Amino acid sequence: MDFTVGSATAAVAGSFDATPDPRLREVMQMLTQHLHDFVREAAPTIGEWNTAIEFLTEVGRSCSDTRQEFILLSDVLGVSMLVETINGQEGGTESTVLGPFHMTESPRRELGDSVDLIGGTRVCVVSGTVRSTSGEPLAGASVDVWQCTEDGFYDVQQPERQPAGNGRGLFRTDPEGRFWFRTVVPSHYPIPTDGPVGRLLAATDRHPYRPAHVHFIASAQGHEEVTTHAFVAGSAYIDSDAVFAVKKNLMVEFVETTDPDIAAEYGVEAPFVHAEFDIVLQERS
Length: 285
Ligand SMILES: [Fe+2]
Prior knowledge:
Layout (H helix, E strand, L loop, with lengths): L7 H7 L7 H21 L3 H16 L7 H8 L2 H8 L36 E10 L9 E5 L21 E5 L5 E7 L4 E2 L5 H8 L5 E2 L2 E7 L6 E7 L18 E2 L2 E3 L2 H6 L6 E5 L2 E3 L4
Parallel strand pairs: 1-11, 1-12, 8-9
Antiparallel strand pairs: 1-4, 2-3, 2-7, 5-6, 7-8, 10-11
Fe (ii) ion binds next to β7.
């Protein structure tokens, strides 16, 4: 049969009929259907289609060991958040985007250690407890954290100014399921704008900023892993995150604390900033 606008979809979808993996077959046929519908509706010119191919090629070329432009593209199109939300845990801490900066192995650190290796100005303690949805504290849970500096840059963005691992730490909860570490209050920051995704935002008059946050991946035996953020309540751009990742349950007050006894408990001097972020993991069924 001739390939026509009308017959194209059945021909291409049918070409996947013999795919042995049923899920791959289902996804490829669904992709064919939606992609063809999109192309029929948008009706791009040859020039526009070439521009799209060049854009995706450039997104790929922009990726390296320390940069993930495809994740960024997925993020700004809201796809990352859709996938996270579809796969969210019931009753557990809500998930949000991984983002493009979790690319180095976080250095293993002891509870109470600082992830700030460059001496920021506002000392901050982040503490919390990892629990199961049943309420039971989870001892030995893994808590992987990463964040930007007070100036809004991740270590991988400033290899000449920040040692690798700055702002990152991999912690294990104590027998009561608790974790705590020292850091600085992160800043809001722009996602990288010097690549094709940045140019897309500029061309569509969208700002590139994300509200201030600390990233977490928490996991424990017998429980579902969660990838999430603690957002700094009241941060700039909290209502217009460029990657749509804010959820109100993930907003955390970063509180100026003057009590010297609480400061001593965490091995810091008052005043300091304290943020409490408890994490709940769903039991694996
Ligand atoms: Fe981030």
